[in-house]
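Q: What structure does this chain adopt?
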Amino acid sequence: MNNPLLKETRRPLPAKPGQVEAFDYEYERNGTASIFLFTEPLAGWRRVAVRERRTAVDWAREIQLLLEEDFRDFPRLILVCDQLNTHKVASLYQAFEPPHAQQLVERLEIHHTPKHGSWLNIAESELSVLTRQCLDRRIPELDVLQAETTAWYQERNRLQKSVDWQFTTADARIRLKRLYPQFNS
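A:
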């Protein structure tokens, strides 16, 4: 997810009794940042990483952290990703020497959501919560965004906020009808 970095151009008017702080509609664009979000929904765990860019190498380095730090004791990790062009095994080979890339690949089982089906990706739901709870204001700089998103995910992890996924097989058969085989009786 790309997030704009926005600076205030004027000092906000302070809050008064019965009135909230007032911000001017003008702002200064201060670049963008890329947000990577990983979640293990049943455990109520997530991690957010903020980077300057969203390249194949950036994604590969985040996968390395996921495998070698967050889930180092797990022999295999199932990863559900959207169809982004960087979410490929080849990204690992672009970022690391072949033996290291191969070690990472052997621990991964990657599943991609259908095109136009990123709503099936639970991380998208978490991104929505992140946007509403943390990113719903102007954040001017990369380090501030990193601090804010880190505080947000650490608090959600502390509370073990899990995902109550209510998409059933019956719902899937209706919404994903075009993906199911058609049989003539």
